[in-house]
Here is the input.
Amino acid sequence: ALTAGIVGLPNVGKSTLFNAITQAGAESANYPFCTIDPNVGIVEVPDIRLNKLTELVKPKKTVPTTFEFTDIAGIVKGASKGEGLGNKFLSHIRQVDAICHVVRCFADDNITHVSGKVDPISDIETINLELILADLESIDKRVDRVAKLAKQKDKDALAEHEVLVKVKDALEKEMPVRAIEFTDEELKVVKGLHLLTSKQVLYVANVGEDDVADPSSNEYVGQVKEYAEKDNAEVIVVCAKIESEIVELEGEEKEMFLEELGIKESGLDQLIRTAYHLLGLATYFTAGVQEVRAWTFRKGMKAPQCAGIIHSDFERGFIRAETVSYDDLLAGGSMGAAREAGKVRLEGKDYVVQDGDVIHFRFNV
Ligand code: GDP
Here is the structure.
């Protein structure tokens, strides 16, 4: 499964946020196929469409799709020099598919800040610098090898060498790889390098309780947003402390509490949704009387591959996908009505599944 790693300096609110994630977390009893790793938090992806489909179809059971966060602890400073837990920290980051970087934007004199004062940009740069240095090291190793081949007029090596030099120049200016513009050809080379700073980043600005309703009054949030723009990253605002209270609530109680706070959606729900999109994930549904269910797929996947997410037999014996978009189904009011309106399509093996498709797979066993 794809996972987003949670990183941040000490005392910024990582554990508070991660605890909220695991508490909100899907009961592992419901997901026996998921490994129970204390550093992994499995959450259900909130999706209003699933609720609407449930109202429409009235199934026996509704199953949301899930998403994983990994808590990446470890000493950050000096990581690229392999100090302390540093190497471990980097190897954990290497394994995640996107990075959620928690940044302290709350002032609280009772909570020590590792560098003495609240300064989100300096915090961000501390971690990013370690990642940049680690990437530079990987590039340097590779450049030497490729340079030799390039001298022998090896065409691929020449092309790769150019890309490596371009990446190296940017990294030396402390620019992460995700902020560099590449041609499609260059991008192929870059992907093969598996660099840490090429991963997508979401900055999670952790504000104090008083700033939740109107984060624009928090100057640190503004700084993080400005930074993220040139860093080609996204930003969401949460209050980890309040999130740990929200997860205790459900349904109406939760809605009332959010209203009191003056927010539409919990920070955790926003975090899940944003990380999900950052990873290029999307959702299709199956909707039968037994079960209405949301399934996660990667954007660009074709119908047979998507069928394979449910069961490998579905992919092997794929015949076609009876597909209706969520909007068409809802507008029709029932599967039958959507069919009569000609909105149910029979899609074949080359169909690229779209977010919100409601699908019934036909297959041979
Ligand atoms: P970590 O070291 O990054 O995992 O940070 P923790 O989650 O342990 O948080 C460090 C301290 O900051 C704890 O005492 C938390 O209660 C506190 N804290 C976390 N989030 C907030 C917040 O939004 N507001 C305030 N006032 N304190 C917070």
The chain has three domains: 3-47+65-113+199-278, 127-197, 300-363. The first strand starts at residue 3 and ends at 7.
